[in-house]
Amino acid sequence: DGMNVLFIVVDDLRPVLGCYGDKLVKSPNIDQLASRSVVFSNAYAQQAVCAPSRVSFLTGRRPDTTRLYDFYSYWRVHAGNYSTMPQYFKENGYVTLSVGKVFHPGISSNHSDDYPYSWSVPPFHPSTEKYENDKTCGEKGGKLYANLVCPVDVTEMPSGTLPDIQSTEEAIRLLNVMKTNKKKFFLAVGYHKPHIPLRYPQEFIKLYPLENITLAPDPWVPKQLPSVAYNPWMDIRQRDDVKALNVSFPYGPLPDDFQRLVRQSYYAAVSYLDVQVGRLLNALDDAGLSNSTIVVFTADHGWSLGEHGEWAKYSNFDVATRVPLMFYVPGMTTSSVPRGERVFPYLDPFSHVWGTEPQGRSKKVVELVSLFPTLAELAGLQVPPACPETSFQIPLCTEGTSIVHYFNASEEKVEEEKKDGCYDSYRCS
Amino acid sequence: SEESVAFSQYPRPADTPQWNSDKPKLKDIRIMGYSMRTVDYRYTVWVRFYPNNFSADFEDVHAGELYMVETDPNQDYNIYNNISHGVFHKKLL
Hints:
The complex is a heterodimer. Chain A is α/β, with parallel strands linked by helices. Chain A is built from 13 helices and 13 strands. Helices cover 8% and strands 41% of the residues of chain B. Chain B is built from one helix and four strands, in the order E-E-E-E-H. Chain B has one helix spanning 86-92, and strands at 6-12, 31-37, 41-50, 55-68. The longest helix of chain B is centred in the C-terminal third of the chain and has 7 residues, at 86-92. At the A-B interface, strand 2 and strand 13 of A face strand 1, strand 2, strand 3 and strand 4 of B.
C-alpha cells in the first residue's frame, strides 16, 4: 500500500555537498541522507531557470512541450492540460501538500502553485517570504541594503525568523498531522536558499573562513565561448553591494575579493539549508515515519560560482544545469532499520565533520524530467505512459523515463553489507 | 552499451549579451541553445527560434559548443570549430 513521499527541492543548489565530493562544504545532514540513498552524480535540469525547470519536472514534460521558457504563462492555458506529479499522487489517494517554493510563484503556476489541481490543501508560504528582496542587511551608517552577500542576525529580521526556518517548522507540523491521521501523503518542501540574496544566519559564515575560500578554477570567460552562450548575470548586478562595484557590462569581472565573498556566502547558505534538511529528517524519525517514507532530495538547477566568468544560472553550462539527485527508499536503498533506531539523527554542521559514502551511486546521466515516472514506480503507482512526439492534447504521459532500474547497484551494496553483518554503512564507515 | 543522455535548453534574445539575455520573454526569444550531454561530452547548438510557433530551425546554426569531459571537465575549451560535429548534430536531432 504505497509509501509516503517527502519531496525536498532546493532553489539554485548545485551539488556542492560532501556526498558529491566537495571538500570544503559542511553538509552533514544531506550527506547522512545520501549515505542511505542512491545518489545520481550526473543529473541535469532541462532548463537552468526556476519556473521552466520546475514546471518541466513537475509535469514530466520538456520545455518545448510546456512552452514555458520564461515566467509568464501557465501550461494548462498556454500549452496543454498536463497532469502534474503531485496531482497524479492526489488522484491515486495521496494527501498532497506543498510547503515553501515548490512551483515557481506567479502566472507560471496560476498564482496558486497549481492548487487545487496539484495539492489537497492550499500551499503554505512562509509569511517572511515577502521580505526576501527587501533592504534587510549590510547595515552601514544606520542604513540597510538589499545586498547579494547578506549574512544577518535572525533575531533582527522581520518577525525574527527567515522563510526556510518557517517552512521547516510547517513541514514538521504537517508530518505530525499526517502521522496522526495515518493517511498516505506526498509532502513537497521547497527551500529558498541558496537562491539569491545569500541571506542566512550570520553564524554560518564561521564555517568558512575567508582565507579558505578560493576563486573558481576557471574564473575567466573562455576565448572560444560563443557570445550567445554567455549569460551576463543581470540579477546579481542589481543587488546593492554589486551595484556599488560598478562592474562593467557584460563580462565584468567581479573583483577577486568580492568573488570570494560570494562563494563564501553560497557555501554558508548551503550549510544553513543543511540544518533545515537535518531538522526535517530528524522530525521524520520522531514521527516514526522514516521506515514508510521515500525521501527525494534535488534542486531545480545549479548555479555558477564564477566559472567561465559567470554567476547565477541562465546558461547551458554543467555548473548551471547539474543538480543533486538522491532517493532514499526504505528496504531498497537501505535495509529497514530496527524499530526505535534513528535513521536520520540531527547532525550539527558546527561540530560534525566527516566524509561519507552514499549507499549507492549511479553515474548514469539522468534528467529531472524523469522524476515523475520514477516516483510513480517507487510508490507502486501505474507509471504514466511515454508521451508520443507531440503530446499537447494528452493530459497524462511523460517525456522522462523511470530511473528505478539504475538503483540495482545500491541493492547489491546492501547485500554485501548484510553479509558482513553491517546493515548501516554510514555508521560502519 | 545503452548510453544515457540528458537534454537541456536555454533561450536568448540575441547573439550577443544584452540587458535581457538571462531571462528573455517568450516574444523576445530569437535563439535557443539545445544541449545534449553524456558522460563523455556536452554538445550545444544555438539555433534560430521562432516564438510565434515555438519552432527551432536546426539548419540555421548561430553557434556551437563541444566539450569533452575527459580532457576538459570544466568546459573551458570549446572545440566545436576544431572538429567535424555532424555526428553530434544528427544525434541531437
